[in-house]
Amino acid sequence: QVQLVESGGGLVQAGGSLRLSCAASGRTFSNYTMAWFRQAPGKGREFVAAVTWNGDNRNYADSVKGRFTISRDIAKNTVYLQMNSLKPEDAAYYYCAARGLPIYSDYVDEYDYWGRGTQVTVSS
């Protein structure tokens, strides 16, 4: 059974940094795309960043380009989201997702597995 478990959320001041982690288990992810999405109160879930498990391709939402970096540690079966220069509008629940194809997508419905999320709060 595939499990994705997020950690690393918390409260940070605007301009600060956080690193989110997503521990993946339950299968081999070698042909998967791993992604981060976020959802703020009253809003839909939106794409943040994605990386293919082999690390060849990374994609970012325009709103986080230059500030966020997605990476993965194959040995630890973990995906990370380094978030720098955080803004109040980055506050949301952040979700890790896995898609069973090595092809990037920013559509929620095209991801097969989801974690339960970790909350990020940014104070101004």
Concise description?
With 124 residues, the chain is an all-beta fold.
**What gross morphology would you assign?**
globular
Helical residue percent band:
under 10%
Helix and strand string, N-terminal first? EEEEEEEEEEE
Helix/strand structural class: mainly beta
Please summarize the sheet with the most strands.
7 strands, mixed
Question: Could you explain how this protein is built, in words?
Answer:
With about 120 residues, the protein is an all-beta fold. It contains no helices and eleven strands. The strands form two sheets. Strands 2, 4, 5, 6, 9, 10 and 11 form a seven-stranded mixed beta sheet that branches. The chain has a four-stranded antiparallel beta sheet with strand order 1-3-8-7, with no helix packed on it. A hairpin with a 5-residue loop joins strand 5 and strand 6 (about 60). It is globular. It starts with a strand and ends with a strand.
List the helices and strands and how they pair.
Blueprint: E1 3-7, E2 10-13, E3 18-25, E4 33-39, E5 46-52, E6 58-60, E7 68-73, E8 78-83, E9 92-99, E10 113-114, E11 118-123
Parallel strand pairs: 2-11
Antiparallel strand pairs: 1-3, 3-8, 4-5, 4-9, 5-6, 7-8, 9-10, 9-11
Write out key terms for the chains shown.
single chain, 124 residues, mainly beta, seven-stranded mixed sheet, four-stranded antiparallel sheet, 0% helix, 50% strand, globular
